[in-house]
Amino acid sequence: MRTVALPDGETVPALGQGTWYMGERGGNAAREADALRLGVDLGMTLIDTAEMYANGGAEEVVARAVTGIRDKVFIVSKVLPQNASRSGVASACERSLKRLKTDMIDLYLLHWRGGYDLAETVGAFEVLKAAGKIRHWGVSNFDTDDMEELPDGCAANQVLYHPDSRGIEFDLLPWCARNGIPIMAYSPLGHHVSKLLSSSALQAVARRHGTTSAAVAIAWSLRSGNVISIPKAADQAHVRENARAGSIELSADDLAAIDAMHRPPKRKQPLDLL
Ligand SMILES: NC(=O)c1ccc[n+]([C@@H]2O[C@H](COP(=O)([O-])OP(=O)(O)OC[C@H]3O[C@@H](n4cnc5c(N)ncnc54)[C@H](OP(=O)(O)O)[C@@H]3O)[C@@H](O)[C@H]2O)c1
C-alpha cells in the first residue's frame, strides 16, 4: 500500500475507506462492518467517519469493524461546525469516542467552516491533543483562503476530488503540497457513481489495465502523492476492486486521455462541495 506523509512525518495509507450512509439502518450494520473489516485486511487501514453520518450510526459501525484490531486502524472523524466552540468540540469528541468505543481518534476534522472563530476551534483541538483524546487535527471543505487563515498545526484538508471536480488542482492542491498538508479526496467515485464510471475515457484506460473505471478513478485521485483517497463501499466486491486501485500506475498517455474528457482547471474555481 502506498503511503502519504502527514506534516509531522507519520505516514498513513494513501487509500482508505469512507462511511457516509453506513449505520443508517441497523439491519445493514453487520454487512457494512464486514466490508470495512475486509478493506482493513486488504490494507485500507484508514477509515473516515463523522458525527454527522447517520447521527453517529456510522461511528458505531466503525467501532464494530475495528473490534480487536483498533491498533491497526487510523480513525478519522469530524465535528460539525455548530459544535465547533471550545466546549462544543470537547463534548462532541467525548460522544464520538463513546460511539467509536475507543479512547483516541487519530485525526479529528472540522467538517466545514461555520460561525465559530477558527482560533477557538483550533484551541479546542489542541486541548484534546494535549489530553491524548485526538492525535492530529485538520479541516474539511476549506478553500485556499480558509487554509491561509488557519493557525499552524493542520494535518489534512478533506475536500471533494474526482475527475469531474478537479478545480482544487489550480491552487488548493499545490498550496497544500507546498505546506506539507495532505489532501483527503472525498467522493473519489463521484458519489453518484453512474455518471463518472460511465466515462468513456475512464473505461478506455480501465481496458488497458484490465481493470474497472472505478479503480482507474481511485488511482487517478492518488497520482500526485499528496492525496489520501477514501472511497466508500459496503459491497465486498467493490472493496476488493478499490483495494487493487492502490497498485495501478497510470501512464502519461492514460492521464492525457482522462484530461481530454475531464478538463483540468485553467483558472481559480470556487471550491466544489457535495
Ligand atoms: N468531508 C465531507 O464533507 C465529505 C463529503 C462526502 C464524503 N465524505 C467522505 O468520503 C467518503 C467517500 O465519498 P462518498 O461516499 O460520497 O462517495 P464515493 O466513495 O465516491 O462513492 C460511494 C458509492 O460508490 C459505490 N462504489 C464503491 N466502490 C465501487 C466500485 N468499485 N464500483 C462501483 N461502485 C462503487 C458505493 O456502493 P456500495 O456502498 O454499494 O459498495 C457507493 O454507492 C464518504 O463515505 C465519507 O466518508 C466526506
Helices and strands in order:
Layout lengths: L2 E3 L5 E3 L15 H13 L4 E3 L8 H9 L8 E6 L6 H15 L4 E6 L7 H13 L3 E7 L3 H6 L4 E7 L11 H7 L4 E4 L6 H5 L2 H10 L3 H10 L4 E3 L6 H10 L6 H10 L13
Parallel strand pairs: 3-4, 4-5, 5-6, 6-7, 7-8, 8-9
Antiparallel strand pairs: 1-2
The protein binds NADP nicotinamide-adenine-dinucleotide phosphate.
Can you give me a brief rundown of this structure?
The protein is of the alpha/beta class and 274 residues long. It contains 11 helices and 9 strands.
- Here the CATH topology of the domain at 12-191 and 227-232 equals TIM Barrel
What is the assigned CATH homologous superfamily of the domain at 12-191 and 227-232?
NADP-dependent oxidoreductase domain
How many strands appear in the DSSP assignment? 9
The coarse overall form would be globular
Average pLDDT: 97
Strand-and-helix sequence, N→C?
A: EEHEHEHEHEHEHEHHHEHH
Textual characterization of the structure:
There is one protein chain. The chain is an alpha/beta fold and 274 residues long. The chain has a domain at 12-191 and 227-232: NADP-dependent oxidoreductase domain (TIM Barrel, Alpha-Beta Barrel), CATH 3.20.20. It has 11 helices and 9 strands. The protein has helices at residues 29-41, 57-65, 86-100, 118-130, 144-149, 172-178, 193-197, 200-209, 213-222, 236-245, 252-261; strands at residues 3-5, 11-13, 46-48, 74-79, 105-110, 134-140, 154-160, 183-186, 227-229. It has a 7-stranded parallel β-sheet. Helix 1 crosses helix 2 (57-65), helix 8 (200-209) crosses helix 9 (213-222) and helix 8 (200-209) packs antiparallel against helix 11. The two termini are 28 Å apart. NADP nicotinamide-adenine-dinucleotide phosphate (NAP) binds next to helix 7 and helix 10.
